[in-house]
Design a protein that fits this description.
This protein has 12 helices and 23 strands. By secondary structure, it is an alpha+beta fold.
């Protein structure tokens, strides 16, 4: 018997038919070459041999009397694999769009709380010959990083499944706990939670004081201001009350290209992900006929892991930070720089509080109170009128860089399927897998019925950003080459003395200076001109030189060409 933490239990209390609180993933698998067996049956056998490696597979909830405290996890020694692992056959032609639509419908239904909180679906009938696979697990049992550890219990890094030692089967596990035992466990846990809270109070108060009370300036005054990252988002079509129906879309971009963009603009991969999502959402709003792109930048709620390195406990250890998507900036590179500024400020704030953010807290009486408030919030449609705290939830989870296998079949994609809530009808979660960033977009069907278009816009935003960054890198390289060129040398090399006609003064003529740099781009160099002896009675004209860079290294002047400048009327 193990108690749920306050944070894990919150996902149970906030769950309603319109807001299921499970997370999942959609995969495509390549069957082994020459395979002619039943993959569904192979998966069942495979999982049955691995269930003891992850507690999620064999534990279920036991509720407290009158729901006065958090539930506890108890062992279930009678797991029905025929219920938890199911087979689905897609109708012809079996496209990816059909698979995504079916995953959206599967993600709409609640998990049965009387059983272990997980389900697997083997989806056959794809026209590509691959096999689809959809899994869902309740967020009360697992978070994003723990999900990777959960998957490693089932998946292998080679086509041949690794040998797993089978545990000794335990007997005599009580199916239902007694009322007295549950009440005793609830009281013990509540006392422990209050003791932990009291122990944290001094440290929390000190951290809050140092973060919220500014230091004195030169005049000895403390100047209080509203934190920059605590700004509400604008109202958009993404921020409405939701139904229980879901749509799902997916798209992938190369991880190496995202890394190159991040390096070129001096941002992180997370910033690039936020930038791509911002660009796609801008375009979606522009083409939706709603109100266009709001003048105020949209805000993303970004999960931040509180998990220590090496911690593989299968529970939720995360908090949330708010970041500007700079959606009011049209230029994708400038937008990316603004996002970096916002995320850096948010991370600094989170780091100040990270050590004192609780994942477990007293919950006496919380179940019925929080469940009632969650139901009231959804039915009253308050989310349609309140300004949104955030417009979208965006998460980036690092995944394995090597190929993974399930029962001998190779995994090709790793698309996350996540949670949406009232007032935030869109969730974009990204998983890196084997050199790819796999985007999974989960949305309310009524609010965003064409979520696949939004997924495609992410791919378009990536191409646009890649093109812009290529030009940006070339421009920066050319400027660096120009700054590295000594002005005196440039003047000396650029002088082209030409004898003037008799009686005329020398003229300053335009020249082309070829400088070798990584890219071919036009740049300007100051104080570079070609002087000739003027014709009699005329003064020289100052004409700036045009510098042309050609592909080569290092940056050196290779040739000079002169040309007469035509007079303009």
């Amino acid at each position: 018997m193990k108690h749920l933490s306050g944070l894990d239990a919150t996902f149970l209390y906030l769950e309603t038919p319109e807001t299921p609180m499970h997370v999942g993933s959609m995969h495509l698998y390549d069957l082994p070459e020459g395979f002619d067996g039943d993959f569904y049956e192979e998966v069942k056998k495979h999982v049955s041999r691995r269930m003891h490696l992850a507690p999620v597979f064999h534990r279920k909830l036991a509720l407290m009397p009158f729901e006065l405290a958090n539930p506890v996890w108890v062992e279930d020694d009678d797991v029905d694999l025929d219920y938890h692992i199911r087979r689905i056959m897609l109708p012809k032609p079996g496209t990816i769009e059909q698979l995504e639509a079916y995953v959206g419908r599967l993600h709409s239904s609640l998990l049965d709380r009387s059983r272990p909180l997980w389900e697997f679906y083997v989806i056959e009938g794809l026209q590509s010959g691959q096999v689809g696979f959809y899994s869902k697990v309740h967020h009360a049992a697992i978070d994003g990083q723990a999900g990777v550890a959960f998957a490693s219990a089932v998946l292998d890094i080679s086509p041949v499944p690794r040998e797993v030692k089978q545990p000794v089967r335990r007997r005599g596990i009580q199916y239902q706990l007694g009322v007295a035992e549950l009440i005793q466990a609830a009281l013990t846990n509540v006392v422990a939670q209050y003791a932990k809270l009291i122990w944290y109070l001094p440290k929390t108060a000190k951290t809050l004081g140092s973060a919220l009370i500014p230091e004195k300036d030169s005049s000895g005054r403390r100047r209080f201001s509203w934190p920059k990252n605590l700004s509400l988002g604008p109202r958009t079509l993404f921020n409405v009350s939701i139904t229980n129906q879901r749509t799902f879309g997916s798209v992938s971009i190369p991880l190496d290209e995202a890394k190159q963009i991040a390096k070129a603009v001096n941002v992180t991969i997370n910033d690039v992900v936020l930038g791509l999502c911002s660009g796609a959402m801008r375009r979606y709003l522009e083409e939706s006929g709603y109100d266009g792109v709001p003048k105020k930048p949209m805000v993303a709620a970004v999960p931040v892991s509180l998990r220590e390195a090496g911690n593989t406990e299968q529970n939720t250890q995360a908090t949330m930070m708010l970041c500007s998507l700079a959606s009011n900036i049209k230029d994708p590179i400038e937008r990316l720089k603004a996002i970096k500024s916002s995320t850096s400020a948010a991370k600094e704030s989170i780091n100040n509080f990270k050590a004192v953010i609780p994942t477990d807290f007293p919950s006496f009486g919380a179940p019925w109170l929080m469940s009632g408030l969650a139901s009231l919030y959804g039915r009253s449609k308050i989310a349609d009128n309140l300004p949104p705290i955030a417009n979208v939830a965006i998460s980036n989870v690092p995944g394995p860089p090597v190929p993974l296998y399930l029962a001998g079949a190779r995994m090709r994609t790793y698309y996350p399927v996540s949670i949406i809530m009232h007032g935030m009808a869109l969730n974009i979660t990204v998983e890196s897998y084997q050199g790819s960033l796999d985007f999974g977009l989960t949305a309310c069907r009524r609010a965003i019925p064409d979520v696949k278009d939004l997924a495609n816009y992410i791919a378009d935003a990536h191409q646009e950003l890649k093109t812009k960054v290529t030009a940006y890198v070339a421009e920066m390289a050319a400027k660096e080459a120009a700054r590295a060129l000594p002005p005196a040398t440039a003047e000396d090399e650029a002088k082209d003395i030409i004898r003037p006609r008799r009686g005329r003064r020398p003229q300053t003529k335009a020249v082309n200076i070829e400088i070798t740099t990584p890219r071919t781009v036009p740049i300007e160099v100051e104080n570079v001109k070609v002087e000739t002896k003027p014709k009699r009675g005329r003064r020289p004209k100052a004409i700036p030189a045009e510098v042309i860079a050609t592909e080569a290294e290092p940056a050196t002047v290779t040739s000079i060409r002169t040309r007469r400048q035509r007079k303009t009327s």
